[in-house]
Each structure stands twice: as C-alpha cells, then as structure tokens.
Write a sequence for this structure.
C-alpha cells in the first residue's frame, strides 16, 4: 500500500549536495534528539545547526552547545533529557548572534525566516509550513534598503510604472517571497529612483570630467499631449581608448517648446549641470531652427564656449529628420496615388479568400517577385515606400485581378503604376541612406559624407522636366537636400579629411562632380577651414580643459623642451632667433605632413579612430583635432526612430510625473546599460 503521507526525505547521489526538507508541523526527528544511552550508535548530526555549534561536556550527564561565532553556550542535554535544536536555530536565523552579523555581507538577501503559528499571513513572525535548507548554504542577513534599491533599479531598467509597488498582485508576490520586506509607496519608490539616478550621476560626472577631448551634443525634441516639450540632450565623445561613446545627459522640460529661447535654455542647463563650459565642439538639432532661435543659441555658446571656426561647426541639422522630411514631402505630393495603391493592397490583405486568389493569379502569371504585400504604417515612411515597391512589382497581378474579380474596384491604371515607379526612384536613395543609420551605432559625419554627396549630386543633375509630377519631385529634392548640404557640407568634408584613406582627395573629387568649374572655390573653403582649425588647436594646446587632455603627446614634448638648457648667456641669443626664424619657414606642420603622405588602402571595416590612436605620438596636435571632428554626430534619433515622419511624443504616464523624475528614469536607464558600478549600497533618502 502506498503511503499517503508526504515524504520529505530526498535521496540524492553523493555527487550532488543533499538538501533536507523539514516539515515544521512534525516533531523533531531522532537526528536532532541523541539519547545519552546510546552514545556509540549515535548517527551523524545532519542539522544545519551543527555547522555553527559544538557540543561540550560541562559536567557528568550535562552537555551544552557552544556557538562557534560568539562562544555563547546553550542548554543541550541533562541526563537523558535532550533540549533539541530549535533554540539554537533561532540564535542563528534571527540574527541574534553578534559575531555572525559582523561577519556576514550585508548586501545579500535573507532566507525565508521562521514564523510563529497562528499569526496572520504576511507577518514576519509567521511560521512557514516548510523550510528548504542546504548544509552548504549560510544564513544571509536581510537588508530592507538593499531590496528597495533593487526594486528601483528594476523599475528603471524595464520602464515599469512607479505605481506597480502598490498593485495588489505585486504586493502579494513580495510578501510571500519575503515577509520581512516592508512594502513601499509610490512616493517612496519615486524617491528611491531619483536617489539611484543621483548615485549613477556621480560616476558619469567623474567620467565626463576625465574625458581627453571635447563633447558634442544632440538635441531631440519630444512633444506631448499637453503642448509641453521635452528636450533629450545626448553627449557624444571619444573616450581614453579612442572609442565613440554616447550618454543621455539631460531631459529638460520646456513649457514653450516653440519659443526662440527654448533650445538655448535647455543647452544652458546641460552646460551648467555637467561643467561643459569651454568643452563643447558642436550641437546637432533634430529640427530646423528659426533665425532668432539660432542666434540665441550661438550667443549663448559664444559666451560659454570658445567658438571653433567662428561657430561654423557649432550648430548642425539631423540627417535622419532631413531625410524623413524629404520623404514625407515626396509622398505627400502623390497622396491620391498612394491612397489608391493602399486601398488595393487592403482589398487583398484584409480577406483570406482575396489573398488566396491573388496568390493563385501570381503563380499562374509566373511573376518573379519575391516580395509580399503589406499595409503600410503612415507614421513610418519606409513602410509606405516598401508597400509601393512590392505593389509595383505585382502590378500585373492587380491588373489580372481587376478583370477576374468583379468586387475589386478602383484598380490603378498603367499610368498610375508608371508614376509609382517614378516616385520610388526618388525615394530609394533616401531609403538606402536612412538604412545606414539603423545599422550604425554611432553615425558620424565621416559615415555620411558620401551618402549626402550622392543625394546632392542627383538633385543637381536632375533634368528640368515639363512633366508637372516630375518637376514637383525635383523641386522638393533640390530645395531640402541643397539646404542641408550648404549648412553641413563643411563639417562632413572636414571629417573626410581626417580619414587617411581619403584626405582632401575625396573632397576635391566630390566637389568637382557637383560644382564643375566652380569647384575650386568650395575646395579652397574646406582647405582654409582645416588649416584654420588646426592653428586654433595649436594655439589652444595644452587645452585648459582637463588634465587628461594634455596627458600624452604634446604635454610630454613640452616638458622635455623646458628641461633643455638654452644658450642665451654666451652671446648667441641673436643666433637662436635667427635659427628659429629661418627653420620655421621651411618646417611643415603636422597637418601638411599628414596631407602630403600617401592615402591608405580602402580596406573594409577600417577603424579610423584606431588609426589615430596608433599615430597620436606622430601627430600629437592633429590627433586631438581629429578626435573631436570624428565624434560629431549627424543624427539625433535612435535607430528604431530613423524612419518616423512625426516627432516623438511623450506618453501620458511620463508627463504625469515630475520633470525631475522623468529625467531620472530616462537618464539612469541609459547609464545602466553601460554597466556603471554602484557608488554605494545605501540609499540616499529622497522625500516627495
């Protein structure tokens, strides 16, 4: 007959540590009660208690258990009467052993603590029906603050709502998992999240302070249903290991985001918050600025920051937003045509029978296209482009469906399909360029020079057409792409010059293709700009920014020169001046030497920053300039938002929070993904 009672003894092979499960409702087993009358047959004590206690005979017939940690003794047996081990377990599990408390790591969590019978559920003194234990597992001290800290980190990392700590399901789960944990309120966890953000911020502050170069900023403006604006400010820079890095630095709420002073105020907050006065290299915005807003920003930065090239590199536009704006206008110019194509696709995709018939016709006609129809998302322009391409390749099937299905109405004509093909030919280069942004972690100026140049070349070469549709498309491309090229071509070209595979050669080639006989004017502008910028770096170095800025290269050479004795007291002062004057006329600068050297082979996956890292001693000043130029970002948006044709909008939950809480949640989540170490395990108490 099978025993109906639960069996709590588990037999596991010797190769695996044994875990003993004890039913707290049953009396103590013989392993815990060792009779005095059978000392020779006493079984080995298995209770975890004996890892912390030893038995000592204090007198005939009287033995006591001594704690190995604090040496305190407890009654164990008198004559044939055995006291058991419950009081010994309480000494360890309840944390009353002072020595054990001192020796344990307070950052660890505690096991399930014993509860007394009859108490209500969730009380720390309640007794569990079963306790799982392992002889090799030490007792771990419960830490309320540590648990709160981890809940705050969990909420930040996974974008959980702060209200979850008050949800009944979460409360019940935590109380069953650890009854000793005192549940927190919305205000408490809000303070914990801000405290976590402040601890992380201390590390980022030290990190930013020690950067060897300048910092570039991107400004991404989000809207909200309350007409409030939120400016996401991200810092881009090259670290000590010559790797591109980015960190979200601020999320600034602007009550009047369309005002001319909104962006300048947000940038001022960032510069002050992170001590970036005098360390800014460029600012890239996700939207075109009015002349007044641009002037306000330049005025602010001219006071707070030494202008590079008279501010020509200071403010740039986001290439992702530019491409989206052009694509949106192109699609908008053919809105009726796209609606007709979309309705045809809907007719096929929203009915299983229609789709089956469509596929049968495709197979019968042997259409070679591998594309599948899908309905576009009008917010993301790439889906509209791909819908048009797929439908265009299957136009024969649509034409056949028009003749075989009487319910299918409004089929596009052959002229419609011709216009779709023309429209797609204009959208394709935009789509290809934007796709690079989705696969590049840190899209920089050097990455996009060639793509923007191709777009500008296509716009310049566009033949004037009498067809109103083509003429309208040409006008859109020429106006918007030409505007971006005029405003940003200099910083794009300077980045190309800093690539040892291209230098000035690619600039000369590209500008000649675009401007023809007038190219020399634009080439000279770039050449003058790169030389002027180099001379500014020579004048500024060693830069008064951070000790790390002059830690290598120039600083070392200056110190060696200062230690060398100068012959000025032997009547050779004039000779020294003569030598300096005559040799400086023939001495080439680092920049000129670099430009005159042969181009490197164009190998795939070439690491431009890695090359400058290896050559920083050869070009101590030029390498610092290259480091800053190559960190200039061309896009302000995340890869998953590249194709958005609308501005990002803050959700209702976040706009219901305090602005400082929104900033804390967004920034701390961004920093945590880079593995920032914790400053302290103790929480800073934030009261709301």
């Amino acid at each position: 007959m099978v025993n109906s009672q639960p069996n709590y003894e588990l037999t596991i092979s010797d190769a695996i540590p044994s875990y003993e499960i004890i039913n707290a409702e049953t009396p103590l087993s013989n392993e815990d009660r060792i009779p005095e009358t059978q000392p020779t047959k006493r079984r080995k004590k298995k209770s975890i208690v004996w890892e912390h206690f030893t038995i000592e005979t204090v007198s005939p017939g009287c033995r006591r258990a001594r704690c190995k940690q604090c040496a305190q003794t407890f009654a164990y047996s008198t004559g044939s009467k055995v006291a058991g081990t419950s009081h010994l377990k309480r000494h360890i599990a309840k944390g009353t052993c002072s020595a054990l408390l001192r020796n344990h790591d307070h950052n660890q969590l505690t096991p399930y603590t014993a509860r007394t019978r009859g108490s209500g559920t969730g009380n720390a003194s309640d007794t569990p029906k079963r306790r799982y234990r392992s002889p090799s597992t030490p007792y771990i001290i419960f830490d309320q603050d540590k648990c709160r800290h981890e809940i705050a980190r969990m909420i930040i990392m996974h974008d959980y709502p702060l209200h979850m700590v008050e949800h009944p399901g979460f409360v019940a789960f935590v109380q069953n998992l650890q009854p000793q944990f005192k549940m927190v309120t919305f205000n408490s966890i809000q303070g914990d999240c801000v405290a976590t953000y402040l601890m992380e911020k201390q590390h980022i502050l030290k990190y930013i302070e020690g950067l060897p170069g300048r910092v570039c900023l991107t400004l991404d403006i989000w809207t909200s249903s309350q007409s409030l604006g939120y400016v996401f400010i991200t810092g881009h820079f090259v670290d000590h290991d010559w790797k591109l890095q980015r960190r979200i630095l601020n999320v600034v709420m602007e009550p009047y985001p369309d005002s001319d002073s909104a962006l300048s105020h947000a940038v001022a907050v960032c510069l002050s918050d992170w001590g970036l006065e005098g360390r800014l290299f460029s600012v890239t915005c996700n939207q075109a600025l009015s002349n007044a807003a641009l002037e306000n920003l330049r005025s602010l930065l001219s006071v707070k920051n030494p202008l590079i090239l008279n501010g020509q590199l200071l403010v740039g536009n986001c290439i992702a937003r530019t491409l989206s704006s052009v694509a949106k206008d192109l699609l908008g110019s053919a809105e009726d045509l796209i609606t007709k194509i979309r309705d045809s696709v809907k007719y096929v995709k929203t009915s299983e029978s229609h789709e089956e018939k469509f596929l049968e016709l495709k197979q019968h006609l042997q259409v070679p296209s591998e594309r599948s129809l899908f309905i576009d998302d009008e917010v993301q322009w790439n889906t509209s482009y791909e819908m048009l391409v797929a439908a265009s390749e299957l136009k024969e099937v649509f034409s056949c469906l028009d003749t075989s299905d009487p319910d299918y109405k409004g089929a596009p004509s052959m002229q419609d399909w011709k216009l779709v093909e023309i429209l797609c030919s204009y959208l394709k280069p935009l789509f290809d360029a934007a796709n690079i942004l989705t696969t590049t972690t840190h899209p920089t100026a050097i990455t996009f020079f060639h793509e923007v140049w191709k777009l500008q070349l296509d716009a310049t070469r566009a033949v004037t057409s009498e067809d109103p549709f083509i003429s309208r498309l040409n006008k859109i491309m020429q106006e918007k792409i030409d505007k971006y090229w005029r405003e940003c071509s200099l910083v794009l070209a300077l980045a190309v010059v800093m690539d040892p595979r291209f230098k000035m050669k690619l600039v000369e080639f590209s500008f000649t293709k675009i401007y023809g006989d007038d190219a020399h004017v634009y080439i000279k502008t770039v050449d003058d700009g790169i030389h002027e910028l180099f001379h500014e770096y020579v004048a500024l170095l060693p830069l008064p920014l951070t000790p790390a800025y002059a830690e290598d290269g120039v600083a070392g050479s200056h110190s060696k020169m200062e230690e060398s004795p100068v012959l000025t007291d032997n009547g050779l002062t004039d000779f020294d001046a003569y030598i300096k004057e005559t040799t400086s006329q023939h001495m080439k600068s680092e920049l000129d030497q670099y430009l005159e050297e042969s181009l490197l082979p164009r190998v795939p996956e070439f690491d431009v920053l890695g090359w400058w890292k290896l050559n920083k001693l050869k070009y101590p000043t030029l390498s610092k300039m290259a480091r800053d130029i190559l960190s200039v970002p061309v896009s302000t948006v995340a890869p998953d938002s590249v194709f958005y044709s609308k501005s990002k909008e803050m959700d209702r939950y976040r706009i219901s929070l305090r602005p400082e809480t929104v900033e804390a949640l967004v920034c701390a989540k961004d920093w945590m993904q880079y593995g920032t170490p914790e400053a302290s395990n103790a929480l800073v108490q934030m009261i709301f």
Summary: The first strand starts at residue 20 and ends at 23.
